[in-house]
Design brief:
A hairpin with a 7-residue loop joins β18 and β19. The strands form 6 sheets. Strands 1, 2, 3, 7, 8, 9, 10 and 21 form an 8-stranded mixed β-sheet that branches. Strands 13-14-12-15 form a 4-stranded antiparallel β-sheet. The chain has 424 residues and is α/β, with parallel strands linked by helices. It starts with a strand and ends in a 5-residue tail after the last helix. The protein folds into 2 domains: 303 residues, FAD/NAD(P)-binding domain; 103 residues, no CATH class. α1 runs parallel beside α10 and α6 packs across α7. The protein is built from 11 helices and 21 strands.
Length: 424
């Protein structure tokens, strides 16, 4: 079935995760008519579709939480607070980073409300199918929804899909994984219910349970530190990152194996927790996923790639349009993440050209598809930073639709972002 376009927009954003929501809010606050397209039935990205129950990147690493992301990201946190979620900085005992613990169901509602308040036209259950392109510009997209296909036009577009789906169908060159085409491992988050709230969780007992699991001959768990875990606030649940899966490529077969094997591992692990960890005697596996957490896929070419040196030197730039403060976190070796601190004052700037597509004049990038080398990518991919780069991309896209249609200067984008409450 095919039908005529229902609406035309100033900016179309593909992907409703942190980068996409940030982009949609940034564009709307800059005065654009915005369409936000999301393949799931809810917004939130990995926080809601992969049970990543923590926002990373809102705060700098250190003894005290210093905020690095404001603007659209702060609006989301405020929306959570209105729904009873504290959204305060939480110091992870495992990594030493400051994170924000989430309630995914309330987050879905908070994002729905924010988009409605800003007049953003959200299309859920809708996938990008194709694009129309003329020379160096995109003219429109074909969107596939429950009621068939629609052709929708816009002046500017933001790829916030995470997997660079918009860039892919637009013909932009891309790299898969790092410079040697190796992908970072995926992780299957677990939520375990029925944990005794009065019993302190013993990390040594958790480590012993993992050793027991490995001795029983199943697919091995490589984290020997017990993984990253926390109690879910307001519940008796235990949230755990312990199961990592190697991703040899982006094929459906690779993802199918990762998903199936991770679920088998989760069931076996929780059985062992019940057997031998105090407080877990009545535990049960409440949830995996819903899907495995994907850290990396395609990297479309940008006009600038954030570099390793930008991160470790904490470079600040006159053309910076977002702060990034999460340390480099790379999962090349399954179960053995590598960390490296941000230098300088604890953050670095993402320049405007890192969120601009190379070869297309009206395509912008948000979240984990922005330009970055393989090590810098380990810093910029987290959701807190994605809100900041998304808001910048959406703002720049909106500003490009006015007057002569040319790309705005970094100075103009910065001024608009600061007026929207962003931290630059």
């Amino acid at each position: 079935m095919s039908r005529q376009p229902e609406s035309d927009y100033d900016v179309i954003v593909v992907g409703g995760g942190a980068g996409g929501v940030g982009a949609a809010l940034g564009a709307a606050k800059a005065g654009a008519r915005v369409c936000l397209v999301e393949k799931y039935g809810f917004l939130g990205g990995a926080a809601t579709n992969a049970q990543v129950l923590a926002y990373c990147g809102f705060f700098q690493q250190g003894n005290e939480p210093i905020q690095a992301v404001g603007g659209a990201g702060e609006q989301v946190l405020e929306g959570l607070r209105k729904l009873g979620v504290a959204a305060d900085p939480y110091h992870s005992e495992t990594t030493g980073n400051w994170i924000v613990l989430l309630d995914p169901e309330r987050l879905k509602v908070a994002l729905d409300r924010l988009c409605a308040e800003h007049g953003i036209d959200v299309w859920l259950h809708t996938r990008l199918a194709a694009v129309s392109r003329t020379a160096r510009r995109l003219e429109g997209v074909t969107l596939a929804g429950m009621d068939g296909r629609s052709q929708v036009g816009a002046e500017a577009f933001v790829d916030a899909s995470g997997d660079a789906n918009l860039s892919l169908v637009s013909g932009v060159d891309f790299r898969i994984g790092d410079e040697e085409n190796r992908l970072q491992a995926g992780t299957m988050p677990l939520r375990v219910g029925g944990v005794n709230p009065d019993v302190k969780i013993d990390r040594n007992a958790i480590k012993a349970a993992v050793r027991t699991y490995n001795e029983r001959g199943n697919e091995p768990i490589h984290r020997d530190d017990g993984g990253i875990y926390t109690r879910v606030p307001g519940t008796s649940d235990f949230w755990w990152l312990i199961i990592d899966r190697e991703m040899p490529d982006l094929s459906s077969r690779a993802f199918t194996h990762a998903e199936r094997s991770a679920r088998e591992m989760a069931v076996a692990l929780v059985d062992i927790l019940r057997e031998q960890v105090p407080g877990f005697e009545r535990a049960w596996l409440a949830q995996t996923g819903p899907q495995i957490g994907v850290r990396e896929s395609r990297h479309p070419t940008a006009r600038y790639e954030v570099t390793y040196e930008d991160v470790v030197e904490g470079r600040e730039r006159g053309d910076g349009i977002a702060r990034a403060a999460w340390p480099i976190e790379v999962h090349k070796e399954v179960g053995r993440p590598m960390y490296e601190k941000v230098g300088g004052r604890g953050y670095f700037h993402v320049p405007l050209d890192a969120v601009r597509a190379k070869g297309l004049d009206n395509l912008w990038y948000a979240g984990r598809v922005i330009g970055a080398d393989s090590l810098a990518y380990g810093s910029i991919r987290v959701m807190g930073t994605a809100f900041a780069t998304g808001e910048a991309a959406g703002t720049a896209a909106a500003l490009s639709t006015t007057a002569d249609g040319r790309a705005p200067t970094a100075e103009r984008v910065r001024e608009q972002l600061i007026s929207q409450g962003a931290l630059i």
